[in-house]
Amino acid sequence: MKWVFLGLPGAGKGTQAKKLTANRDVEHVSTGDLLRAEVKSGSKLGKSAAQYMNRGELVPDDLVIAMVVKYISGMENYLLDGFPRTLEQAVALHEATEGNGVDRVFDFDLEEEEVVKRLGGRRVCRDCSAMFHVGFMPPKSEGVCDNCGGALMRRDDDHPDTIRNRTRIAREQAGPLLSFYSDKGLLTRIDAARPADVVQAEILSYLSDS
Ligand code: AP5
Fold first, then answer.
1. End-to-end distance of the chain based on CA atoms, in angstroms?
2. For the chain, give me the number of helices (H) and strands (E)?
3. What are the pLDDT digits (tens) for 56-110?
4. How far is CA 184 from the centre of its chain?
5. N or C terminus of the chain with fewer C-beta within 10 Å?
6. Which helix or strand (DSSP H or E) is residue 122 part of?
7. What sign does the dihedral 67-71-76-78 (CA atoms) show?
8. Is 95 strand, coil or helix?
9. Atom of ligand 1 nearest to the CA of 193
10. Which atom of ligand 1 is nearest to the CA of 85?
11. Eight-class DSSP state of 25
């Protein structure tokens, strides 16, 4: 299984990817998580990436492509969440894997108004990265992670100006990226406005095809 989740920031890619890969022999490869780990470690890549991420801009293609191609090398099953995000990244992945790097692409479709509501209320556990929403998926105790008891935080890039920038850039990049995968017959549209369990059930229905 070599799947890709595409869609606007906040469309629910990470939420669905975590559910799908839990207890399955499939690696959840989130470029956002990989880059945030680099930032936290203070690596050269992390220092460079942080400047772009804090402004809600894309990290340059060459840095992200090198990181992902190295990370997935030799992996049999993966779910790419947030990569590719540009046509250049899609072409590079295609070439690096000799055309065998992707067997299904889901495009999470969600209105921008809903994106703003979802990202504005998102809270992430500082310790285990579990995800919540203050209104749609609240934790049992306010500000405390249900899984590990860690403190829930707002992500640095979940602020109104940055959200607008991320959404605008994602829309600009989407057209060519979707055409690339549609032309290869790999694209499946997902109505991401539905409750998370309903979205997950639809995605699971495609597992038997992989
Ligand atoms: P990244 O971490 O990938 O952020 P993103 O794409 O902006 O996506 P998000 O994590 O914000 O949203 P999501 O779709 O995963 O939604 P989620 O499940 O959290 O990237 C961050 C940054 O890193 C980028 O801006 C860029 O700088 C850099 N970067 C990463 N990849 C890159 C690349 N390939 N190239 C260059 N730069 C790159 O859900 C959101 C909220 O909604 C949560 O609170 C959740 O609880 C709630 N929710 C989820 N589903 C539902 C539902 N069905 N109903 C109601 N609420 C829901």
1. 6
2. 8, 8
3. 999 999 999 999 999 999 999 999 999 999 999 999 999 999 999 999 999 999 9
4. 22
5. C
6. strand 122-125
7. negative
8. helix
9. 53
10. 34
11. S
- Alpha carbon nearest to ligand 1 atom 1, residue: 32
**For residues 129 and 125, what is the distance between their CA atoms, to the nearest angstrom?**
5
CB of 199 sitting under 6 A from ligand 1: yes
φ and ψ at residue 187, rounded to 5 degrees: -90, 135
Ligand 1 centre and the CA of 205: distance in Å?
23
Other CB atoms within 10 A of residue 210 CB: 11
Would you put residue 151 in left (φ > 0), alpha (ψ -120 to 50) or beta?
beta
The DSSP string of 155-191 is -TT-SHHHHHHHHHHHHHHHHHHHHHHHHTT-EEEEE
Q: Work out whether strand 104-109 and strand 2-7 pair parallel, antiparallel, or are unpaired.
A: parallel
Length of the chain: 210
Q: Which atom of ligand 1 is nearest to the CA of 56?
A: 25
The dihedral formed by the CA atoms of 145, 43, 70 and 8, expressed in degrees to the nearest 10: 50
Model-level pTM? 0.95
What pairs with residue 141 in β-bridges?
A: 144
Instruction: Find the helix or strand (DSSP H, E) in which 125 lies.
Output: strand 122-125
Tokens of 105: 């692409």
